[in-house]
Prior knowledge:
This protein is mostly helical and 776 residues long. The protein has helices spanning 2-10, 27-57, 60-85, 87-99, 104-111, 113-152, 177-223, 230-279, 286-326, 334-348, 363-390, 413-446, 450-475, 477-489, 494-500, 503-542, 568-613, 620-670, 676-716, 724-737, 753-775; strands spanning 353-354, 360-361, 743-745, 749-751.
Amino acid sequence: MKYAVLFYTSVGIEPYTIDSRPKKFRLWSYLLFWANVINLSFVVLGEILYLGVALFDGRFIDAVTVMSYIGFVIVGMSKMFFIWWKKADLSKLVKELEHIYPTGKAEEEEYRLDSYLRSCSRISITYALLYSVLIWTFNLFSIMQFLVYEKWLKIRVVGQTLPYLMYLPWNGQENWSYYVLLFLQNFAGYSSATGQISTDLLLCALATQVVMHFDYLARLVENQELDDDWNRNSRFLARAVQYHQRILRLMDVLNDIFGIPLLLNFMVSTFVICFVGFQMTVGVPPDIMLKLSLFLFSSLSQVYLICHYGQMIADASSSLSISAYKQNWHNADIRYRRALVFFIARPQRTSYLQATIYMNVTKSTMTSLLQVSYKFFALLRTMYIKMEKLMNYASFFYTVVGIRPYTDGEESKMDRLRYRIVFWSNVINVCFVGLCESIYVYSAFKDNQILEAVTVMSYIGFIIVGMSKMFFIRWKKSAITELINELKDIYPRGSIQAERYNLPMYLGTCSRISLTYSLLYSVLIWTFNLFCIMEYWVYDKWLSIREVGKQLPYLMYIPWQWQDSWSYYPLLFSQNFAGCTSAAGQISTDLLLCAVASQLVMHFDFLSTSMERHEVSGDWKTDSRFLVDIVKYHERILRLSNTVNDIFGIPLLLNFMVSSFVICFVGFQMTVGVPPDIVVKLFLFLISSMSQVYLICHYGQLVADASHGFSVATYNQKWYNADVRYKRALVIIIARSQKVIFLKATIFLDITRTTMTDLLQISYKFFALLRTMYTQ
């Protein structure tokens, strides 16, 4: 374990203490550790700020690049802190391993110690060198570019650039601060890499010893010569069982120490691999490609290293049952054979290296991680193709909350200014309320007030859904404008076309649903906003049956006494304002989706009606012209459907994810004995949340049914009277229309009415878990 200790020492961490190396307090190590932590925190804060600025300015490539850096820092810091936190447990583990470590030449040969030492040393040195080359390539890359391209070859001006992108509120070039920042970033990069190298090498060293003991026990059992002497055989079996139990206890301690860091490692590595792979596919220069290839290879090597040792532990633990079976037990006493059954049964329950309870680490884990990374990579690539031009456009504001979802003409400077003021006022206020509610949740959990925490989490979920929809519509304004213009081009004009498209029916249905839904949500939000005021006037002032006092509509953390001071009224206004903003963000986006989906359904239905009612003439030229027009119309509707999914996909996915928790939280509150008036309020909240989900699922089902109906209508046509070439062309049309078009929540979810059932099932599972936790 000398390599792991060496890297830990370089960042000021003493991972463990043992009898042969007692604890030493060194001021230098203490200062070095906290200097690393403070510097890493400063750099990652600058990177997070840069990420926000890049997303706001539409620099998507820069945003993805800095997210890979942030992920690298998160993995390194988490591993350092967990080892620092688990030092006592790690010291006990190392002491236990020291007690059973082979001593003397004879024992070392029996354990085959040299083989394990050579293997672990080779892997440790190779891995440490690989990561060291990686981090110093990144650290010195900007300097090498400056010296080679600008000073030596003089082929381009590079200037003084930093190795990592981060936000600086001043010009960090061409002055003394550049050298300070360069040192801090190099220091931070080295600290992150060292945190990962040291912990991974420590895990490899400990896992190698566990494998060595499993293998030794397996050979010991397999090579034991048995006879019919029960006393001698039983003593051997007892020693083997005790040795096995000791190794299993060591495995439990090992998983307890490394479980959470491994889980964080796999989660973050999934995105880092995705982000780095994405950068390599967007046309970067050859030198940057080389740097990214090294980053990708190092990240993959890290994951594979952990999975490789996880597989070795699993194989070594399960091989013990095979070795016991290979033993010459057929010469032993019947009692030994019966005892051996228990000994064989336990190793068949394989011991795994575990990333907490969620993941058993083997080589198949590597496959699963790469599959998830590729899914995110495919989603990111799909988003980037559309986003590349969309994020460069200025975003404006949506009706009531200061956003214009699409442009239909020139806007004056005064209009743009007014929309900006309204929008950012809403955003700042909602962020203030959401932050105070988040602090309240933390305080409630800390004080074991689960009911209050769950109540506020439902409010936070409501805000998240509303804000995400507002921002995504603002972000996708250009795409929405193109979509609306395309829909205007094919919208039925005049009374004759309106009748052919059955336009009044679709308008009437959409209007009724929109009016009902907006009224329901308006009643919901104003019930919540005014509930505390109504309680005060009815119970306190009018009926005088209980003292209510001045209350706010939503629970949130306020660090001063506000009930009897002037600040109550600004807080009441702020919360009402935030509630209206969140509700308006959801209502407006949902109604826009319904209006667009209604037009898609109308066009699909008109296409089906036109196809089914077409009278086949038998003349190939006449019929083929009809088919060409139909196919072009169908392709146009399919393109519109893809655009709709591109615009609304991510907001819908967030909506379904958050709504499953909101429905769970509201349902939970209704079952813990709240007063009848509160039950009415919560019931309205529950109905509104479920209505929102059902509305989206209903229109998703309409789109799916209408798109599939085109294939049925094509078959119902009198095609048997047509030319054989016409019939062959119909086969292609039917085949394409049988591939149903869905309203999609990105690539993860096709939205139909069954989605509603799935979401309620998930909500119920969380509800049952929450009830169980609350009861206990």
